[in-house]
């Protein structure tokens, strides 16, 4: 198919009610068209984010309600095949990544995008969208600067991988928790790795004898109180995954802000990477979300339509 060819119909993932991964269906639907300020891409890879399966399960119904049947996914990369009105600086045939809607599909609309960075595969760039923006946003929100130390709970997944590298690039020391098999991976990113679980405070104290200046909770059930105890001040602890943090006096992440600014900061780092850990086909979207929900990943999970 030529770069600018727009299909009239395509295959996509939809769900008709909240529930488990079996609610996801591979269906034939009309291909979308970009509106003003949007672009349409032929999807080469769609990222699987934790927010995806949280939306599907109904956990986010109060904050992100959906109209059924609903599409799935928000991050993707691929080739531009159509431009909405007023779009400039990008052309049909360009390789881009970004954020949009219903990206678990053969074609998807992006609302914010950037060229695939030099030296980064299109497949890997699919994971940059939300993960990199989140990493920059939460570090800014914590207010940490060069010479300080941050503790990251759940540091080996997609967002964690991005946060570690952005922090190190800013001169912030990182102590990151992960499972035993992912310790070497964390160290390769520039973090001091520690195993999560009982005795965490002692391991963090050994890794950062001068203490930590803030903590980021990406994942880890029931760990927030311990993070607060380690830091010594709940206002210097931020969670991106547990709104119960507010009840403990900790912060929760703010709304998404400037995607392009965040992507530019990551692209400027000489060795920034978001490796793809697992690949699934569009028909395996349910399995991809189950893999994401299980945790313990070292990098990103993507769907290849």
From TrEMBL:
<dbReference type="InterPro" id="IPR020843">
    <property type="entry name" value="ER"/>
</dbReference>
<protein>
    <submittedName>
        <fullName>NADPH:quinone reductase</fullName>
    </submittedName>
</protein>
<dbReference type="InterPro" id="IPR013154">
    <property type="entry name" value="ADH-like_N"/>
</dbReference>
<dbReference type="InterPro" id="IPR051603">
    <property type="entry name" value="Zinc-ADH_QOR/CCCR"/>
</dbReference>
<dbReference type="GO" id="GO:0016491">
    <property type="term" value="F:oxidoreductase activity"/>
</dbReference>
<feature type="domain" description="Enoyl reductase (ER)">
    <location>
        <begin position="19"/>
        <end position="303"/>
    </location>
</feature>
<dbReference type="InterPro" id="IPR011032">
    <property type="entry name" value="GroES-like_sf"/>
</dbReference>
<dbReference type="Pfam" id="PF00107">
    <property type="entry name" value="ADH_zinc_N"/>
</dbReference>
<keyword id="KW-0521">NADP</keyword>
<dbReference type="InterPro" id="IPR013149">
    <property type="entry name" value="ADH-like_C"/>
</dbReference>
<dbReference type="Pfam" id="PF08240">
    <property type="entry name" value="ADH_N"/>
</dbReference>
<dbReference type="InterPro" id="IPR036291">
    <property type="entry name" value="NAD(P)-bd_dom_sf"/>
</dbReference>
């Amino acid at each position: 198919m030529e770069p600018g060819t727009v299909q009239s119909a395509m295959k996509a993932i939809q769900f008709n009610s909240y529930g488990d991964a079996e609610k996801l269906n591979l269906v034939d639907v009309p291909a979308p068209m970009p509106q003003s300020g949007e672009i349409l891409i032929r999807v080469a890879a769609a990222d699987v984010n934790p927010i995806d399966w949280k939306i599907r399960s109904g956990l986010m119904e109060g904050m992100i309600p959906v109209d059924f049947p609903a599409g799935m996914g928000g991050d993707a990369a691929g080739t531009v095949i159509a431009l909405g009105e007023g779009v400039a600086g990008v052309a049909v045939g360009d390789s881009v990544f970004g954020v949009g809607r219903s990206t678990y599909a053969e074609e998807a609309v992006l609302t914010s995008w950037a060229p695939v960075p030099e030296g980064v595969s299109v497949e890997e760039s699919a994971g940059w969208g939300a993960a990199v923006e989140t990493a920059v946003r939460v570090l800014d929100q914590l207010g940490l600067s060069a010479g300080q130390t941050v503790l990251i709970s759940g540091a080996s997944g997609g967002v964690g991988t991005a946060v570690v590298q952005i922090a190190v690039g800013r001169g912030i020391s990182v102590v990151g928790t992960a499972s035993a098999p992912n310790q070497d991976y964390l160290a390769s990113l520039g973090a001091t790795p520690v195993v999560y679980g009982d005795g965490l405070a002692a391991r963090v104290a050994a890794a950062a004898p001068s203490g930590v200046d803030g903590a980021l909770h990406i994942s880890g059930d029931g760990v927030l109180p311990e993070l607060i105890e380690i830091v010594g001040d709940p206002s210097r602890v931020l969670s991106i995954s547990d709104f119960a943090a507010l009840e403990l006096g900790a912060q929760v992440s703010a709304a998404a802000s400037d995607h392009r600014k965040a992507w530019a900061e990551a692209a400027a780092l000489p060795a920034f990477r978001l490796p793809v850990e697992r690949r699934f086909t569009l028909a395996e979207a349910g399995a991809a979300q189950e893999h994401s929900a299980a945790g313990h990943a070292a990098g990103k999970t993507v769907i290849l339509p």
